[in-house]
Write a structure and sequence with these properties.
By secondary structure, the chain is of the alpha/beta class. The chain has 8 helices and 7 strands, in the order H-E-H-E-H-E-H-E-H-E-H-E-H-H-E. The chain has a 7-stranded mixed β-sheet, sandwiched between helices. The protein binds S-adenosylmethionine.
Length: 255
């Protein structure tokens, strides 16, 4: 979703909002999905839309065993898959692209998933309102690579955001990042290397070449494979101490 038409982003004019450069809308949404946006979305997003610190204990009727979050879930297939595999986990999905939100709402309804809450906006508006150490697992999958060097700062995986990820993830929590863009992969590794909050300890190439067994292939992952690009999966652990051990050949990871 890096192609942006002149009608689309960036949003300017509201100084409190960070500029968002992705797409917010795509093709016309079908009436049944539009109805879900009008009725179901407000129920699933209300608690995350409050201006104050999110009451994570009050997000779900039954307190979940843990709280996980996916940033930029696209059409939501991975998030829905996690929610149905792990019914005792609460999941926060973050996605400003309304057609993607509509697709996930349809899956939530079809599969009667009651462990998902949604924030249909830029994650940078939510991060500061999440309490310290409230998240046990964070997924950032095939995030827009913004390949032009001058656009790299639009990426989600930046040092600034990583500081917030470190704050909201508790010690031992997992940050899963996947991408088919080697430049972005390199940046993610370098950013983590500069931070003292995460460790990356691959045991071998299968660690970064194979999708974690509980994950589902996303739409963008499928697109990448179709075009002959091999994704890289990085699992970082929130460590709190400087433990990163990035192999010397990191920047030449063989896809
Ligand atoms: C390339 S798509 C990948 C979607 C999905 N994860 C997949 O693998 O199919 C990246 C998604 O991240 C979302 N995104 C980009 N910047 C974001 C931000 N600041 N906050 C939340 N979502 C964001 C975009 O709207 C887009 O849907």
């Amino acid at each position: 979703m890096t192609e942006v038409s002149p009608k689309e982003r960036p949003q300017r004019g509201d100084s409190a909002r960070p500029n968002f450069y992705g797409r917010r809308k795509g093709h016309k949404i079908r009436p049944a999905r539009r109805a879900l946006i009008d009725t179901l979305l407000p129920r699933l997003s209300a608690a995350l839309r409050q201006p104050e610190t999110v009451d994570v204990d009050g997000l779900f009727d039954t307190p979940p065993r843990d709280l996980w979050m996916e940033i930029g879930f696209g059409a939501g297939e991975h998030l829905a898959h996690q929610a149905s595999q792990f019914p005792n986990i609460g999941l926060i999905g973050v996605e400003p692209y309304v057609n993607g939100v509509a697709a996930l709402l349809a899956a939530i309804k079809a599969d009667s998933l009651n462990n998902i809450r949604l924030f249909d906006d830029d994650v940078r508006l939510l991060l500061p309102r999440l309490p310290d150490g409230c998240i046990g697992r964070l997924f950032i999958l095939f995030s827009d690579p913004w390949p032009k060097a001058r656009h790299n700062r639009r990426r989600v995986f930046t040092m600034e955001n990583l500081r917030e990820f470190a704050r909201i993830l508790r010690n031992g929590a997992v940050l899963r990042f996947a991408s088919d863009d080697m430049n972005y992969v390199r940046q993610a590794l370098e950013t983590v290397q500069k931070s003292s909050d995460f460790s990356w300890r691959p045991t071998g190439p299968s660690d970064w070449r194979e999708r974690p067994t509980d994950a589902l292939e996303t739409r963008y992952e499928a697109k990448a494979r179709l075009h002959g690009r091999s994704p890289v999966y990085l699992t970082f652990i929130r460590s709190g101490t400087r433990q990163l051990r990035v192999p010397k050949k990191t920047c030449n990871l063989k896809l």
